[in-house]
Amino acid sequence: MQPEHLGSLTFLSTRNKIIGVLSVLIYVKEKKNQKYRNKKRTKRSILVYATSPHDSLYSRPFIESFEETPMLVAVLTYMGYGILTIFGYFRDYLRHWKIEKCYIATEKEEQKDFVPLYQDFENFYTRNLYMRIRDNWNRPICSVPGAKMDLLERESHDYNWTFKYTGRVVQDVINLGSYNYLGFAENTGPCADSVAEVTMKYGVGVASTRQETGNLDRHEEMEKVVARFLGVESAMAFGMGFATNSMNIPALAGKGCLILSDELNHASLVLGARLSGSTIRVFKHNNMQSLEKLLSEAIVHGQPRTHRPWKKILIVVEGIYSMEGSIVRLPEVIALKKRYQAYLYLDEAHSIGALGPRGRGVVDYFGLDTSDVDVMMGTFTKSFGAAGGYIAGKRELIEYLRCNSHSAVYATSMSPPVVEQIITSMKCIMGEDGTTIGEDRVRQLADNTVYFRKRLREMGFITYGNNDSPVVPMMLYMPAKIGAFGREMLKRNIGVVVVGFPATPIIESRARFCISAAHTKDMLDRALSVISEVGDLLQLKYSRHRKLPSLLRHLDNDVYEDIDD
User: Fold this and answer.
1) Is the separation of the CB atoms in 205 and 216 below 8 Å?
2) Is there a single domain that holds both residue 394 and residue 461?
3) Is 392 found in the same domain as 451?
4) 407 and 466 inside one domain
């Protein structure tokens, strides 16, 4: 190439950079003006509905609600954690002088000069806050975790450090905690019969990897069924859902790549991104303005220091966010992905089977084309009542992962009974079993979800998320009410999951209900009656029912900050 041509290219490159920088500055200025206007308009908002200005991208209404934490509740919550912290330091002082016995792991006296194996201060939260309400977790189940379940009763005589079983069984507990969205966690019916038959033929374990002698004909059949179910060219399965993310993202991205991750992505996605060695930037939850800003900056500035273009930009999102109950704004994410020529990694762990008129997940829910999603990930542990996860997409992608994914090369093959559960349940949803059982369950789940959310709001509880999400977070806020709610619900034969800091923001502790197609209306009414009773007892009905129409939450940073405060 001639020198003058090189000079022209350099000039054009510099000019494009200047134009790009000016565009970003104009963009930021305009958004600041919009932010100021929206702030004046929404300053006193209590309940914010999230809708989209890009209505042309959506084939159905998209409504999510996030009610602001009442100021008094927030103050009392902080005070509660403050009091617990003060008493925690006091109890640590008593333990230091052997006045109070401490059961937590510590170094032996002869190892006191070693590098500490157990960081004493890092366990402060576990010792002094978590232990107070530890009885709400790890409860042993002794039945199928279906719409109802049986629990082994246990008790503690040392403030939840250890537990002893009483020998009694708490029977017929309504299960609002398991991810049994379509009710396939069952020990009777076509799935159970098919699994029993395959177990007798193939046994339980494979004792080898897929690349050696662990590739069964049922594995091949399962992957074909998964690809057909999703409407993609090819798919591959893994024995663990968590490892599907954490072991495959490093195979797809590396040094010189940029990963744009939603701030509320699951720990498996976060771990996978960190293991990849890529640069990671986080955008606000479901906030398309924040995502577009990061994309535009990535294109304009390139890599740090060198300013070379990124080798690859990977957007990582979830279908349903399991703590918020919100659904990804997939049409807008895809539009941004196409505009900036990025790649999209979609985790459908909670949405596959649970969303869409055909149960095909969030892509089906929005009526989009699966070819617009570069990497489709999901798990079999929830809607299908099995175990493991999958990656699906173009054939070239799957063939690449078969050779380069640590989870594919080194992990033991999936158990044949688990594989058969996946095949049978998926065929049932697709109607290939000759019945409408799967279609009916998908429809029943949608009806149960809308009914349960509507009743909770009418009772005065603050719930988060999308109207169609079967994950229903109900806000508890105060630390003392986390344990109290779980215990009071179990006393009334309702099993629930309660969640607090650090799994959630410190003032946003919550109960998380998971709705199932197996729940009957009588079960839901019984559960709602008990929730209302316990809500009155613990004063959990915080909602003030002041609703505002269609505020653009994801475009207004101030609305976002008001909700988080």
Assistant:
1) no
2) no
3) no
4) no
Q: What CA–CA distance (Å, rounded) separates 65 from 50?
A: 6
Q: What is the pLDDT of residues 251-306, one digit of tens each?
A: 999 999 999 999 999 999 999 999 999 999 999 999 999 999 999 999 999 999 99
Band of residue 20 on the pLDDT scale cut at 50, 70, 90 = very low
Rounded Cα gap, residues 236 and 219, in angstroms:
9
Structure confidence at residue 6 as a pLDDT band (50, 70, 90): very low
Question: In terms of domains, do 242 and 374 share one?
Answer: yes
Average pLDDT of the residues in 424-435: 96
Q: Give the residue carrying structure tokens 């197609």.
A: 517
> Measured between alpha carbons, how far is 266 from 378 in angstroms, rounded to an integer?
12
Question: Range of 470's domain?
Answer: 52-175+435-543
- For residues 64 and 126, state if they share a domain: yes
CATH of the domain at 358: 3.40.640.10
Least Cα distance to 540 among 130, 77, 131, 79 occurs for: 77
SS3 content of the chain, % helix, strand, coil (to 5): 45, 15, 35
How high is the pLDDT of residue 102? 78
Does residue 394 sit within a domain?
yes
Please classify residue 37 by burial: count the beta carbons closer than 10 Å to its beta carbon, then call 0-12 exposed, 13-18 middle and 19+ buried.
exposed
**Confidence class for position 3, pLDDT limits 50, 70, 90:** very low
Same domain, 402 and 466: no
CA 80 – CA 391 distance, rounded (Å):
44
The confidence score (pLDDT) of residue 553 equals 38
The rounded radius of gyration (Å) of the Cα atoms in the chain is 26
Overall domain count for the chain: 2
Q: Quick one: which of 243, 281, 235 has its CA closest to 376?
A: 235
Q: Read off the pLDDT of residues 42-93 as tens digits, 9 standing for 90 and up.
A: 333 344 455 555 667 887 788 888 898 999 999 999 999 999 999 999 998 9
Distances (CA, A) of 138 to 160, 173, 216, 242, 484: 12, 15, 35, 19, 16
Does the residue 336 lie in any domain? Answer: yes
Q: Taking all residues of the chain, what is their mean pLDDT, rounded to a whole number? A: 87
Note whether residue 42 is domain-resident. Answer: no
Q: Assess if residue 409 is contained within a domain.
A: yes
Distances (CA, A) of 21 to 26, 28, 233, 298, 301: 9, 11, 40, 11, 8
Same domain, 485 and 414: no
Which of 401, 430, 459 is at the close of a domain?
430
